[in-house]
Amino acid sequence: MQGAGKALHELLVSAQRRGCLTAGVYESAKLMNVDPDNVAFCVLATDEEDEGDIALQIHFTLIQAFCCENDIDIVRVNDVAKLETIVGPGEESGEPRDLHCILITTSSEDGWKDQALEKLNSFCEERRSVNDWVPTITLPE
């Protein structure tokens, strides 16, 4: 489990650098609708106060269904603050951005292969073999 957290951290940093990271529930849903073939990985994140947000939980259910239908690996993270330290705040506005859903994209012609993504794909495959379809990952400190 610790190795998966480290791999997720590496993947987020790498994807951010390459411009292959989409953050936000709305932005992610738009991307999945327009270009689902290039979505390689999905991260759903909540904090304790988000657990009672019914609208967010409905969005998560729809995103999870889409990911399962399109063979996109998906994990949960229970610490939005740690995610923000990894991917940073919003662009120019300086406002905190929505990190409840993060998509990692690749393009077929790019040929980008990320070892962290491969580790996470293997981790998700292992978890599915024990009926854990959306495993929770703890990010390293």
From TrEMBL:
Signal peptide boundaries:
none
Entries under InterPro entries matching the protein: GADD45 (IPR024824), Ribosomal_eL30-like_sf (IPR029064), Ribosomal_eL8/eL30/eS12/Gad45 (IPR004038)
| Gene Ontology cellular-component terms listed | cytoplasm; nucleus
What residue stretches are annotated with the Ribosomal protein eL8/eL30/eS12/Gadd45 domain? 7-88
Provide one Gene Ontology biological process annotation: cell differentiation
Domain of life of the source: Eukaryota
Keywords from UniProt, A to Z, are: Apoptosis, Developmental protein, Differentiation
| General function of this protein | Involved in the regulation of growth and apoptosis. Mediates activation of stress-responsive MTK1/MEKK4 MAPKKK.
Family designation: Belongs to the GADD45 family.
Question: Quaternary structure per UniProt?
Answer: Undergoes concentration-dependent homodimerization, which is required for growth inhibititory activity and enhances interaction with PCNA. Interacts with GADD45GIP1. Interacts with PCNA.
The protein's name in its UniProt record = Growth arrest and DNA damage-inducible protein GADD45 gamma
The organism's taxonomic lineage, starting at the top: Eukaryota, Metazoa, Chordata, Craniata, Vertebrata
| Gene that encodes it | Gadd45g
